[in-house]
Amino acid sequence: PIEIVDPIFVKVGPMTVNIGSANLGERLLYTSLMVRVGDEETAKFLRMHLPDINNRMLILLSQQSAEQLTAPSGKVELAVKILEVLELPFSTPQPELAMEAVLFQDFIVQ
Question: Shortest CA distance to 103 belongs to which of 10, 11, 34, 16?
């Protein structure tokens, strides 16, 4: 029989960030997401570092534009950038982290 493994998620957010827009001035991004991880050790580590994660996320999100985020590929590109930011070390030493995907739960640009 095939062994079914339950997915493990770490919730990040919600957060609201000011973002720029070339045509419309400042806009707001409201988002929350889940990071799907491969093991409980990674989930525990990420939960312990949520203040660092939130800070990294706010910095990254504030560098985006409304045009980027509302384009069809914008959310996909942002998910890749988020994983890249989360793969930077949080501590030394740090265990190897098994992060698999970023899944947006809310995503509103106003």
Answer: 34
Secondary structure (3-state) at 43:
helix
**Cβ distance 11 to 34 under 8 Å?**
yes
Q: For residue 15, which of 35, 33, 34, 31 has the smallest C-alpha distance?
A: 31
Smallest CA-to-CA distance from 98 within 31, 4, 10, 14 is with: 10
Q: What is the pLDDT of residues 84-93, one digit of tens each?
A: 999 999 998 9
For the whole model, what pTM was predicted? 0.90
How many alpha carbons fall within 13 Å on the CB side of residue 98? 11
Identity at 75, one-letter amino acid code: K
